[in-house]
Design a protein that fits this description.
Order of helices and strands: HEEHEHEEEEHE
Structural class: alpha/beta
Number of strands: 8
Radius of gyration: 17 Å
Low-confidence stretches: 1-23, 180-191
Strand content: 15-25%
Mean pLDDT: 76
Length: about 190
């Protein structure tokens, strides 16, 4: 496991998610955590979430604001998805709103890193009733039997996925695969 900078460590010198050496994580995952802290996206402390729950950390993907941050973010997501699923999928689906740039930067990174063109798609909060791209989605349309990987920045209750999965299934795509980056109340990588 890589060394973490002091900004990440608590007052006992341990990581907030330290398992005492019981578990290890791939280097890209530990690098990703460092990257989130350095980008001021992941903060540790006492936070009250929108749901009212307490959390020892807060992650705000909206704080990735520069081109280089977004490029690296897409690379981390692409590596995690590739490690879990290879390239056996057709579409990256990012639920509105924060999932939209995640899907876009990950599709770009996947193409650059692995040479496979992956389409991106996202839902709209409200269906568009005018123009050439009418409907409830933007980006690529979902086709019958599309294998869809859904990407999200953080999930607490899974509510956004519960709302989005029926939309994806209703568009005739195969049941979606859902890797999650961070899951509260503790850091869990299911990528």
């Amino acid at each position: 496991m890589l060394k973490f900078n002091r900004k990440l460590r608590n007052n006992k010198g341990r990581m907030p998610f330290d398992t005492g050496g019981k578990y290890t994580m791939e280097s890209y995952k530990s690098e990703f955590i460092e990257f989130m802290v350095e980008s001021d996206v992941l903060k540790f402390g006492d936070f009250t979430l929108k749901s009212g729950r307490k959390s020892p950390f807060f992650m705000n993907a909206g704080a990735y604001v520069t081109g280089s941050q977004l490029k690296k973010l897409g690379e981390y997501y692409a590596k995690a998805i590739h490690a879990s699923y290879g390239d056996d999928f057709d579409v990256l689906f990012g639920p509105a709103y924060k999932g939209i740039p995640l899907a876009v930067v990950t599709a770009i990174a996947f193409s650059e890193l692995y040479g496979k063109e992956i389409r991106y798609c996202s839902d709209r909060k409200e269906a568009k009733d005018h123009g050439a791209d009418k409907g409830g989605f933007l980006g690529s349309s979902l086709k019958d039997k599309d294998r869809v990987v859904m990407i999200e920045d953080v999930t607490t209750s899974g509510k956004s996925m519960e709302e989005t999965v029926p939309k994806v299934r209703g568009a005739a795509a195969a049941p979606p695969i859902s890797p999650l980056v961070l899951s509260r109340p503790c850091l869990v990588f299911r990528l």
